[in-house]
Design brief:
Elements lengths: L1 H6 L28 H12 L2 E6 L2 E6 L2 H10 L1 H4 L6 H7 L11 H13 L2 H5 L2 H17 L4 H18 L9 H17 L22 H29 L9 H7 L1 H4 L3 H32 L1 H14 L15 H13 L9 E2 L4 E3 L2 E3 L4 E4 L1 H5 L15 H4 L29 H18 E4 L31 E4 L2 H18 L8 H11 L4
Parallel strand pairs: 2-6
Antiparallel strand pairs: 1-2, 3-6, 4-5, 7-8
Helix pairs in contact: 5-11, 8-9, 8-19, 8-20, 9-14, 10-11, 10-14, 11-12, 11-14, 14-19, 15-16
C-alpha cells in the first residue's frame, strides 16, 4: 500500500522527459505560480519541444514546437479536442463556458452556434460599426490621451456588445462594460496556470472550507456576476425579437434566438454563449491594442516606418479604409511582430487528450492536460534571430519571420487563435478589429515615452509589466500621445462627427445616465 502511494507523482515509463519529480507531489512543488510561460520555456530548452510534468496522479504535456502542435493539435484533433477537468468552471457556469467546456454534445452545439454567426461574411456586415467605434477611439485619444488604456478597453467591449446585442458602450463606465471587465479580471485570476491549488488533480482539495480557499469565494462571486449580466442582456434581445424591434440592425444574438431550436441551444446556453464571446473578444482585442501602443512608443523607428508607408498610401485628408490594408505591407509586418513579441495568450487554453497517443516514441496518455507554449515557440532562437528583440522587418524577409532556411511547412499563421477543433470562433471579428485600429492609430498619432518634467529625462517604458492571467495585458502605462499634425486632428474630429448618426440604432436602449453623458460629450461638435 505504501509503495503504491509513494509511486504517485512519479513520471510513468514512456512519458516524455521532464523535471525530476518527488513522491506524491510529482512536479506540483515547482509548478510556476504566475507567468508560467517563462518557466515552461526554460524547461523546453532543457527537456525538448515535448516534455511532461506530473501533478499528483495527473500528467501535463507541454508543446513548444510548430511541428508538435501541428501534429497533435491539428492532425490528431479528434484525440486532443477536450479540455481538462475544470472544477472551478463547473462551479461557475455548470459547464456552459464554451472555451472551457469538455468535449461533449453541449460543447458541439455551442461551437456550432458560434461558428454559424461568426463567419467571415457575417462579420464583414458589421465592419461599419467597427469603423465607427474606431473613430470614437481616435476622438477619445485626441480629447483625453491620458486615459488611453481605458479608451481601448471601452472600444473593444463596445464593438462586441454592438454586434452581439445591438447595444454599444459609449464610455468605459457604461454598466455592462464595467461589469464585463470585472468578470474578465476574475476569470483570468481563476484560470491562470499554477495560481491556485490543483483541485482537479487532487480532488480532496475541493473539500477545503471556503475561509481557507479564497478561490471558492471568487467562484461564487463570479457566478453571480455572470448570471446577472448575461441573462439581463439576453432578456433584452428576446424582447426585441419577440416585439419585432430589431429595426436597422440584426445582431448575432437575434439570429441565435430565432434559430435556437435548429441549433439546439437552450436559454442557459444562449446566455453563456453570448457572454463568453464578449468576455473573450473584449479582453484579447484590448490586450493586443495595448501592446501595439506600448511598442510603438518604445520603438520609434518602427513607428516612423509605418507612418511613412501610411502617408504614401492614405495621406492626411482622410482616415484609412479597410481596402487600404492590403497595400500597407510594413504595417502588416508590424502587427505580426507585435503578435510574436507579446502574444496575448502565451499558453493559450489547455487541451486534454481523449485517448492515448504515441508521438516520437513517447506516450501522451488519455486524460493528459496539454499546453501549447505559444511564447516558447515565438521566442525560440532556433527559429528567430534575436527573438527577444522587436524587429518587424523579419516578417518582410520571410512569411513567418523566421531565419533563412527554416522549414516552415508546419507553421500556423493563426496559432494565436488556438489550434485544432478549439480555434477561436471570433477570429474574423478580431482580425477586422485589429486591422481597422492598427491603421487608424498609425495614421493619426505619434506615440512616445513621456519626459520627466523635473529632470528632462525620458521615462523608460517597462515592456515586461504585464498582468498575470491566461490573457496577458500590459498594466496601465503612461506615454505621450499627440496628433501627428493639426490636419490629422481636424480630420479625426470631422470623421467622428460624421460617424455619430451610425451609432443611433445602438444607443436606443442605453441608460438615462449614458444618454445624458452622450449629450454633454458631443455638445462641442455641433
Amino acid at each position: 500500500m505504501l509503495s503504491r502511494v509513494l509511486r504517485i507523482g512519479q513520471r510513468q515509463e514512456g512519458l516524455p522527459p521532464g523535471p525530476p519529480t518527488v513522491p506524491i507531489l510529482g512536479n506540483a512543488h515547482i509548478f510556476p505560480k504566475a507567468y508560467a510561460h517563462y518557466q515552461f520555456t526554460e524547461w523546453a530548452r532543457i527537456y525538448g519541444d515535448v516534455y511532461s510534468l506530473t501533478l499528483g496522479s495527473g500528467v501535463v504535456i507541454v508543446l513548444t514546437s510548430m511541428e508538435a502542435i501541428r501534429e497533435l493539435m491539428d492532425r490528431r484533433s479528434a484525440s486532443t479536442a477536450d479540455r481538462p477537468a475544470n472544477y472551478m468552471s463547473i462551479l461557475i457556469t455548470g459547464g456552459l463556458n464554451m472555451t472551457r467546456a469538455r468535449y461533449s454534445d453541449t460543447w458541439r452545439a455551442l461551437r456550432k452556434a458560434a461558428h454559424w454567426v461568426l463567419t467571415q461574411q457575417k462579420c464583414n456586415k458589421h465592419l461599419s460599426i467597427q469603423c465607427a467605434e474606431s473613430t470614437q477611439l481616435m476622438y477619445d485619444l485626441l480629447q483625453t490621451p491620458e486615459r488611453a488604456w481605458w479608451h481601448v478597453r471601452r472600444y473593444s467591449n463596445s464593438v462586441v456588445l454592438s454586434v452581439f446585442y445591438g447595444k454599444r458602450a459609449p464610455r468605459y463606465e457604461t454598466k455592462e462594460t464595467a461589469a464585463f471587465f470585472e468578470i474578465t479580471r476574475l476569470v483570468n485570476y481563476l484560470n491562470e496556470p499554477g495560481a491556485h491549488p490543483p483541485v482537479d488533480q487532487i480532488p480532496l482539495l475541493r473539500y477545503v472550507p471556503e475561509r481557507w480557499a479564497p478561490w471558492k469565494l471568487a467562484c461564487r462571486q463570479l457566478r453571480r456576476m455572470q448570471r446577472d449580466l448575461y441573462f439581463d442582456l439576453l432578456s433584452e434581445s428576446e424582447a426585441r425579437v419577440q416585439n419585432g424591434e430589431s429595426g436597422e440592425i440584426t445582431t448575432f444574438m437575434d439570429e441565435i434566438i430565432r434559430k435556437s431550436g435548429e441549433l439546439k441551444v437552450d436559454r442557459e446556453m444562449q446566455a453563456f454563449l453570448g457572454g463568453n464571446v464578449i468576455e473573450g473578444g473584449s479582453d484579447t482585442t484590448s490586450s493586443f491594442l495595448h501592446s501595439f501602443v506600448l511598442l510603438l512608443a518604445a520603438f520609434p523607428e518602427a513607428q516612423h516606418k509605418a507612418q511613412e508607408e501610411m502617408d504614401r498610401v492614405v495621406g492626411p485628408d482622410r482616415m484609412p479604409a479597410p481596402e487600404d490594408y492590403r497595400k500597407l505591407i510594413y504595417l502588416q509586418a508590424l502587427i505580426q511582430e507585435v503578435h510574436r513579441f507579446r502574444p496575448v495568450a502565451p499558453l493559450a487554453l489547455p487541451h486534454a487528450s481523449l485517448s492515448d497517443e504515441i508521438y516520437k516514441g513517447h506516450i501522451i496518455p488519455k486524460g493528459s492536460t496539454i499546453y501549447i507554449n505559444v511564447w516558447g515557440v515565438y521566442h525560440d532562437p532556433e527559429l528567430y534571430d534575436r527573438p527577444d528583440e522587436f524587429i518587424p522587418e523579419r516578417f518582410l524577409e520571410s512569411e513567418f519571420g523566421t531565419k533563412p532556411g527554416t522549414d516552415t511547412s508546419d507553421f500556423k499563421p493563426d496559432l494565436l487563435f488556438g489550434a485544432g477543433r478549439r480555434v477561436c470562433p471570433g477570429i474574423h471579428l478580431a482580425q477586422n478589429t485589429l486591422m481597422v485600429n492598427s491603421m487608424n492609430l498609425i495614421w493619426g498619432f505619434d506615440f512616445a515615452p513621456t519626459v520627466n518634467k523635473l529632470t528632462g529625462e525620458i521615462e523608460p517604458l517597462d515592456l515586461w509589466a504585464y498582468h498575470k492571467g491566461v490573457v496577458t495585458d500590459p498594466r496601465p502605462f503612461v506615454c505621450s500621445i499627440k496628433p501627428r499634425t493639426p490636419q490629422h486632428a481636424s480630420t479625426i474630429r470631422r470623421c467622428f462627427q460624421e460617424a455619430i448618426p451610425s451609432f443611433a440604432p445602438y444607443e436606443e436602449r442605453l441608460s438615462a445616465e449614458d444618454k445624458a453623458w452622450l449629450v454633454e460629450s458631443r455638445k462641442d461638435l455641433f
